[in-house]
Amino acid sequence: MIVILEPNLSSESELYQSVRLYLENLPNVRIREHQEHGIQQILTEFYLIGDTAALNQAEIESLPGVERVVRISEEYRILGRHRDDHRPTSFEYNGVIFSQDNLNIFAGLCAVDTPHHVEQMMQALQQHNLACTRMGAYKPRTNPYSFQGHGKDCLPYVFELAGKYGIKVIAMEITHENHLREIEEALQQTGQPTGVMLQIGTRNTQNFELLKAVGRQRKFPVLLKRGFGITLEESLNAAEYLASEGNTRIIFGLRGMKTNMGDPHRNFVDFTHVPVVKRLTRMPVCIDPSHSVGTRNEDPNGILDIMHATAQGVIAGANMILVDFHPDPATALVDGPQALTLDELGYFIEDVNIARKAYEARVLNCQEFFSKK
Ligand code: PEP
Ligand code: MN
Question: Angle, nearest 10°, between helix axes 155-164 and 115-127?
Answer without folding.
Answer: 20
